[in-house]
Fold this protein.
Amino acid sequence: MAQYFEVHPDNPQQRLLKQAVALLERGGVVAVPTDSSYALACHLDDKAAADRLRQIRGIDDKHHLTLLCRDLSELANYARVDNRQYRLLKLATPGPYTFILEATREVPRRVSHPQRKTIGLRVPDHPALQALLALHGAPLLATTLIPPGDTEPLNDAQQIRERFEHQLAGVIDAGPCASEPTTVIDLSPMGTGGQAVLIRQGRGDVGALGL
């Protein structure tokens, strides 16, 4: 049975988030709120948890997973970022954007793209998730919570609990999210003199980034 944590969306109770962090550190997969939609998250360095996350989501190892980071300094530990890329990242974070970047050796090989050696990273703008990341003290591995066979993410925490109560370790209910996916931008071509490539238009405004 998934543990259920009902937290205030702007001032989340630290006591409850610490319990959720304990689940993550024991290898559990937890449903978390973000500034775009609910997501599945697990410990970055736990292979069994990452495999479980993919199984719940119904995806294979070719699907880009995302690292949820607290800020750009944390992101830079896991991706190679030059000055051009950093300027774009600074404009867009925190916010509903996912960036594809060249992974560093800090990223476990199993979670980067098998052919391209890239990783999706983002800095979410959600108080409850930011507080969770601060308590955890490291990025979380995540993917949008779209049930297998569906095309839209789930946005109601109670519905998530009912549908996945035997598969998830916990659900953090911070109320409904925006229910729109992130904008995905591939910045990896910029590392060799190319331009950023818009992969998916979502909630994040690309105009604000000059793209």
Summary: Residues 3-209 form a domain with the DHBP synthase fold (CATH 3.90.870.10). The helical segments are 14-25, 47-57, 72-75, 83-92, 127-136, 157-164. Residues 14-25 form the longest helix (12 residues).
